């Protein structure tokens, strides 16, 4: 049996998982790969007590791994986009295939990395970059290859899903749940990338590129986080039959591609509404298969290691293949990618949830509905909540039918100028994904 030598760079949560699963399941992994996969070297700043590396060559300089002439595959698990970029480019220039779990690296530098790899007949595999242990990348490349993808929508960040699940089921405040998420290790000390949607945006770019055959680009992608969501809106949404999820949505239209990450109301009966806690899910609608849901752990040591090792096995199988075969099987065929216009958020059509505080007297709702009618916006539901004791203003909730966002924005501006409306209007987009 031929052997393939790998070098692991990074021995943190995911790196430790890869090392341990490869060691524990070596016999079955080697049988499936039809070769002997050996961990020849590990590059890590410090040891991880969860790994027994006594019989493994561990170096502190990760670039030693990238330059080691005996290594066939470099596994990049250090994260970030600076040192990781230099490491991957060094590995490629030294004739190494690369496996990475780094979504930011692929989203921001993927085109250059893939181009470098293609010129040298090498493979860059990145299954673990999106949705942890869910094999969504392979599903697009293989299982759905017969289909034209119409749209995809994903819960692709476990931190935000945990926070929203707690706000929904227990009525908790965002900041309160965020502290718990940090204590449990679901959120970083600085949670900005998660709660502001940046992490999900990186993943959405990768999925959209695979789904629609377009170059990786963050340009034009609309991103909104969950920090401004209030518990009362989550509660009102549930009363109306919706759950609030933080979704990455990509849709191909005649006008271009929608790329957006934001809080979204989805019907409670929809498949994706039942995905809670730190789990991830990607719903895909395609012309032949219809709508499918890919569901599972979106992070964690061994779930993510499962995807990393699946890539290692694929790369190991491809090593004897011709360069062009490798590109089509695992890498990105840059010649097939076609740039497409990205739609501005104002041009996107969807439904909306609106909540505002209005004076409780006759004619107020009539004025508001007249403004919306003048803007070409039809209303699906309107609810006036019970008036608080001693208050002249009440909460009013409106759910619109599908409308263009710029039309709604114009109506919102006019409504907020009414003397009978107090403060700003809270808006959340609504999607009926099973339709």
C-alpha end-to-end distance: 51 Å
SS field, number of helical segments: 15
Find the CATH superfamily of the largest domain. Answer: NAD(P)-binding Rossmann-like Domain
Number of strands: 17
- The CATH topology annotation of the largest domain reads as Rossmann fold
Q: Find the structural class using helix and strand composition.
A: alpha/beta
As for the number of domains, it is 3
What is the helical fraction, as a range of percent?
Answer: 25-40%
Query: Judging by the overall fold, what is the CATH architecture of the largest domain?
Result: 3-Layer(aba) Sandwich
> What low-confidence regions span 5 or more consecutive residues with pLDDT below 50?
none
Q: Major sheet, described briefly?
A: 11 strands, mixed
What does the radius of gyration come to?
24 Å
Task: Report the β-strand fraction as a percent range.
Answer: 25-35%
For the residues shown, what is the average pLDDT?
94
Task: Kindly describe this structure.
The protein is an alpha/beta fold. The protein folds into 3 domains: 3-132 and 301-336, Rossmann fold, CATH 3.40.50; 138-297, Dihydrodipicolinate Reductase, domain 2 (2-Layer Sandwich), CATH 3.30.360.10; 348-430, ACT domain (Alpha-Beta Plaits), CATH 3.30.70.260. It is built from 15 helices and 17 strands. Strands 7, 8, 9, 10, 11, 12, 13, 14, 15, 16 and 17 form an 11-stranded mixed beta sheet that branches. Strand 5 (97-100), helix 5 (103-119) and strand 6 form a beta-alpha-beta unit. Helix 4 runs parallel beside helix 5 (103-119), helix 7 packs across helix 8 and helix 14 (364-374) runs antiparallel to helix 15 (405-416). It is elongated.
């Amino acid at each position: 049996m031929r052997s393939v030598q790998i070098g692991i760079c990074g021995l943190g949560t995911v790196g430790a998982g890869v090392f341990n699963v490869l060691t524990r399941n070596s016999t079955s992994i080697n049988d499936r790969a039809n070769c002997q996969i050996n961990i020849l070297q590990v590059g890590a700043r410090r040891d991880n007590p969860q790994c027994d590396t006594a019989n493994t060559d561990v170096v502190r300089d990760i670039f030693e791994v990238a330059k080691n002439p005996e290594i066939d595959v470099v596994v990049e698990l250090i994260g970030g986009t600076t040192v990781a970029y230099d490491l991957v480019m060094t590995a490629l220039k030294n004739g190494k295939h690369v496996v990475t779990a780094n979504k930011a690296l692929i989203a921001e530098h993927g085109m250059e990395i893939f181009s470098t790899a293609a010129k040298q007949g090498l493979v860059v595999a990145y299954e673990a970059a999106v949705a942890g242990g869910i094999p969504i990348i392979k599903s697009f490349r293989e299982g759905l290859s017969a289909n034209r993808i119409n749209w995809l929508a994903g819960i692709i960040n476990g931190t935000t899903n945990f926070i929203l699940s707690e706000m929904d089921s227990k009525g908790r405040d965002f900041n309160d749940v965020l502290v718990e998420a940090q204590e449990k290790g679901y959120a970083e000390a600085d949670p900005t990338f998660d709660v502001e949607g940046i992490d999900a945006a990186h993943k959405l770019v990768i999925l959209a590129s695979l789904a629609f055959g377009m170059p990786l680009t963050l340009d034009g992608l609309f991103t909104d986080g969950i920090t401004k969501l209030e518990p009362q809106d989550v509660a009102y949404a549930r009363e109306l039959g919706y759950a609030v999820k933080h979704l990455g949505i990509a849709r191909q239209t005649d006008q271009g591609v929608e790329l957006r990450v934001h809080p979204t109301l989805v019907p409670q009966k929809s498949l994706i509404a039942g995905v809670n806690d730190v789990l991830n899910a990607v719903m895909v609608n395609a012309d032949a298969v219809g709508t499918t849901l890919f569901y599972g752990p979106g992070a964690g040591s061994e779930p993510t290691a499962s995807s990393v090792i699946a890539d290692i096995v694929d790369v190991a199988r491809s090593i004897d293949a011709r360069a062009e075969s490798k590109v089509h099987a695992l890498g990105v065929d840059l010649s097939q990618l076609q740039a497409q216009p990205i739609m501005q958020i104002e041009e996107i059509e969807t439904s909306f949830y609106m909540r505002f505080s209005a004076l409780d007297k006759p004619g107020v709702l009539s004025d508001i509905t007249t403004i919306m009618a003048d803007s070409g916006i039809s209303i699906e539901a309107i609810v006036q909540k019970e008036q608080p004791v001693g208050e002249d203003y009440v909460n009013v909730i409106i759910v619109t039918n599908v409308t263009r966002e710029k039309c709604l924005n114009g109506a919102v501006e006019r409504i907020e100028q009414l003397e009978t409306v107090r403060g700003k209007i809270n808006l959340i987009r609504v999607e009926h994904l099973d339709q």
